[in-house]
Design goal:
Distance between the termini: 42 Å
Shape: globular
CATH superfamily: Vaccinia Virus protein VP39
Strand content: 25-35%
CATH topology: Rossmann fold
Number of helices: 10
Number of strands: 14
Length: 266
């Protein structure tokens, strides 16, 4: 079925998603926007997993909201009795995500915060990109999209916070944490010891795990998985083809170039 989409000016296209959300996307983007404009959907495996993992009344935190596609779904799933607090440090994407919440009546459930999330509070450099809106990163030299060159990037200063600092003022317990931070996951976890260092903090975490990217950034993926295991987490991964969660272990994850993983404490 052909989706309905219209260019509304200011580099924005307004469209209907397959989930019947109204959305703005950046018309200059060649990574995410074309899928939504033509098909109304992007990463259907992630969509299917979130439908299983997020339920009414949950308090959700999202790091890396982009234009808010999954933010909308999680607001819908969490409902009026829950909440979704989403971080997006690219100011253009953050405003699009904020407008998408308003457009769908989710402004009382969802919040868009323009802080970056890292291991320390302070100013950082965010490497934004216009043609590949899914490729902005805090990690220097990260080449996660082959067609994305350094010359395309624009470096902008962003204010960073940490999960621990956020939790000090957040009056709710996080039930579900989604991280899509293009290589910055290790630093995010380092700044979130109240969650990742406390075996008694019951939370489900969905995040990308890319061993090759981590090694490029000077990180040790095997050490990270072992630290998470020692902190009480068990691992599943999202099967892209079957669009379901399957159990996995560190050896399998380390052998893959990329996995979407879901971690929880029993």
């Amino acid at each position: 079925m052909k989706r309905s989409a219209v260019y509304v000016g200011n580099n924005r296209v307004l469209l209907w998603t397959k989930n019947n959300y109204k959305m703005f996307v950046d018309s200059r983007d060649v990574s995410i926007a074309p899928h939504l404009i033509l098909e109304g959907v992007y990463e259907e495996h992630t969509d299917a997993a979130l439908r299983r993992l997020v339920s009414p009344g949950m308090n959700v935190v999202e790091i890396g909201a982009n234009v808010g596609l999954f933010t909308l779904l999680m607001c819908h799933r969490a409902g009026p009795s829950g909440s979704v607090y989403a971080f997006e440090c690219d100011p253009v994407l953050a405003q699009i995500a904020r407008d998408n919440l308003e457009l769908n009546g989710f402004s009382r459930i969802g919040t868009i915060d323009e802080h970056a999330v890292s291991k320390e509070i302070g100013m950082l450099e965010f490497r934004a990109t216009t043609r590949h809106r899914g490729g902005g990163t805090l990690v220097a030299g990260l080449q996660q999209i082959p067609e994305l060159t350094e010359s395309e990037r624009e470096t902008i200063p962003v204010q960073a916070t940490t999960l621990d600092a956020f939790l000090a003022t957040y009056d709710r317990k996080i039930d579900f944490l989604k991280i899509d931070a293009e290589g910055a996951e290790t630093d995010i976890m380092a700044g979130g010891r109240r969650i990742f260092g406390d075996p008694n903090y019951r939370v489900t975490v969905m995040m990308e795990f890319a061993p090759a990217f981590m090694r490029e950034a000077g990180m040790d993926p095997a050490k990270q998985l072992e630290e998470l295991r020692q902190a009480g987490f068990t691992f599943s991964r999202i099967d892209d083809r079957r669009r379901k969660l399957v159990s996995t272990d560190a050896a399998h994850l380390l052998a893959q170039p990329f996995s979407d993983i879901v971690m929880g404490r029993p």
